[in-house]
Structures are given as structure tokens and as C-alpha cells.
């Protein structure tokens, strides 16, 4: 998930009526979903476990599943020839030995790159996955390999739009009931919801803001969430986002609260105690250990 978040500083001094009206008019009733079940905290491997393996690769996804992660999180862009690929950035510069934008490259050009080239766990002293045949993965490959694995798929690209292509791919692989689709881009999520209305979605920043505000002033019960999952950071602008009140009201509306991106064991335990439904982490191994020794509230 995106590391930057909207700034909430000064929110309490804004006119509450604007946000209340926005929340009350945002979407219809929210459907029940298994991700909002009380008493279970989902171990969500962020980009397949970026702290352990090259992110968004089949190597990472396979290892995360073998480790026992409950859910995979991935990001998607489309190649020049229209293939959906699992990669976080719009360019290949940060994670491969190549340079350029994903949307300007064909799948064949992407597959020729070393997707393990830049991964290091020791500040650049060693690069253990270089030359190991790790490549950029396609969404088709991921769905084919793990047809029963719950996933969060984040739409990163909106120019050109790829939401309709994602909907088509989900239907082809019969994954519509196994995913949460997310995006920080309002246009992308609006397009996806129109194309695939039966698929669960997370909420964009503009949809989350009024819910957080209402929670801060003890009016969260008034909110009408536009999606089925709140995928949020612990705090923003120095103001807490994930609170017991927010979690309680979200779950009451069958909305899951999934927090990103948490790699610290102490913070993981605190969030489990708050009753969150899921934790996105680069270290699913650490979270697994925490969950084995913690009992979520019911």
C-alpha cells in the first residue's frame, strides 16, 4: 500500500457538517463479508512479504503462502500490450535492473528483467536474489497458481485505465468472491465498482476521511461506508486513525479494518488487542509468531 497518507492535521477545526453530509451520502448499505469477522486477524503479506523476498514476485507470493499467510496483497499496472502485471511502481527502476515505465514496455521486455536485482536486507551489502531467475509476475500467473487464496489487489494505474481489465480477469479466474479491490484513485475504484459491482472493495482517501472524522467525534454510527474494507494507516498527521471506536463501528457495519504497513512486533500486538481484522506486513513471519501467541478480542 502507499506509504504516504492524507494529512488530517486541523481536521477538528473544520466544519463538521460538510463531512457528515459527505459520509451520509457515500454509497449504499454495506454487504456482509468474511474479512470483517470478529475474533480473527488476517495475516496479510504486503506485496508478498517485501521484507523477506523481492516484492510482488511469484517467489514472494509462493513463500508467503507456504509460510501460512492468510491473504496476499499486490499492486497492478498494465504493460504496453495490455497485460496486467504485479508491480508497485509505475516504473521498473526501483525493483529491477532495467529502466522505464511499465506501461511503455511489452510483457516480453518486462520478463527479460531481473526482478530480484535490487532486493537487499542489509543496506546494499548483498543482493541474494540477483541472477536467480526472479521475474515480474502477471496477474494471470498469480491467480492460476493460487486460485483459492484470498487477495487484496490494488489498482495503481489509471492512465490508461485498467479497472475494467481487472474485472474481466477476476471473472475469468473465478476470483470475484476471493478478493478485495483497492485503489487510492477515485476514478479507478469508481470504474471498477461499475464494472464489477459484486466484488468487495476498499475505500479511497476521500471516502475514508469522513468516517475517521465522525469516529473522532463519536458519531461513527452515522457513516455509510462506500466499500467493505477500511485499509488504513495507524495514524495520519499525528491524529490516530485506528482506534477501538473506529474498529467497533466498522465491524458493526460489516466493514473490515485492515491496517498497513506494520512490521513491528509490539505494534502488531497492540493492534490485535484493538480487534482489527487484518494487518498488512512486510514480515508475515513476525506476524505469524504474534498471532500464534495472541488472542484477538471477540
From TrEMBL:
UniProt xrefs under CDD domains: GDPD_cytoplasmic_ScUgpQ2_like (cd08561)
Protein name, per record: Glycerophosphoryl diester phosphodiesterase
Molecular function terms, GO-annotated: phosphoric diester hydrolase activity
Database matches in SUPFAM superfamilies: PLC-like phosphodiesterases
Limits of the GP-PDE domain: 41-291
InterPro entries cross-referenced by the UniProt entry: GP_PDE_dom, PLC-like_Pdiesterase_TIM-brl
Source organism of this protein record: Deinococcus yavapaiensis KR-236
Family annotation (Pfam families): GDPD
Annotated signal sequence range: none
GO biological process, one term: lipid metabolic process
Amino acid at each position: 500500500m502507499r506509504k504516504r497518507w492524507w494529512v488530517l492535521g486541523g481536521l477538528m477545526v473544520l466544519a463538521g457538517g460538510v463531512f457528515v453530509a459527505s459520509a451520509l451520502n457515500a454509497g449504499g448499505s454495506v454487504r456482509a463479508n468474511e474479512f470483517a469477522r470478529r475474533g480473527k486477524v488476517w495475516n496479510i503479506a504486503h506485496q508478498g512479504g517485501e521484507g523477506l523476498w523481492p516484492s510482488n514476485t511469484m517467489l514472494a507470493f509462493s513463500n508467503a503462502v507456504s509460510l501460512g499467510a492468510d491473504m496476499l496483497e499486490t499492486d497492478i499496472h498494465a504493460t504496453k500490450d495490455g497485460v496486467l502485471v504485479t508491480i508497485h511502481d509505475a516504473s521498473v527502476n526501483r525493483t529491477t535492473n532495467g529502466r522505464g515505465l511499465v506501461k511503455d514496455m511489452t510483457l516480453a521486455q518486462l520478463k527479460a528483467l531481473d526482478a530480484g536485482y535490487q532486493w537487499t536486507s542489509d543496506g546494499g551489502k548483498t543482493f541474494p536474489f540477483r541472477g536467480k531467475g526472479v521475474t515480474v509476475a502477471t496477474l494471470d500467473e498469480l491467480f492460476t497458481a493460487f486460485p483459492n487464496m484470498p487477495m487484496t489487489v490494488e489498482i495503481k494505474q489509471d492512465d490508461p485505465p485498467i479497472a475494467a481489465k481487472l474485472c474481466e480477469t477476476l471473472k475469468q479466474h473465478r476470483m470475484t468472491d476471493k478478493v478485495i479491490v483497492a485503489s487510492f484513485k477515485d476514478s479507478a475504484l469508481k470504474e471498477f465498482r461499475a464494472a464489477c459491482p459484486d466484488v468487495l472493495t476498499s475505500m479511497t482517501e476521500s471516502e475514508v476521511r469522513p468516517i475517521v472524522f465522525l469516529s473522532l467525534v463519536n458519531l461513527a454510527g452515522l457513516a455509510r461506508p462506500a466499500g467493505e474494507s477500511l485499509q488504513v494507516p495507524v495514524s495520519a498527521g499525528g491524529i490516530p486513525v485506528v482506534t477501538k471506536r473506529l474498529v467497533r463501528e466498522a465491524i458493526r457495519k460489516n466493514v473490515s479494518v485492515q491496517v498497513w504497513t506494520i512490521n513491528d512486533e509490539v505494534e502488531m500486538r497492540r493492534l490485535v488487542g484493538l480487534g482489527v481484522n487484518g494487518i498488512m506486513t512486510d514480515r508475515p513471519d513476525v506476524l505469524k509468531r504474534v498471532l500464534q501467541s495472541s488472542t484477538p478480542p471477540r
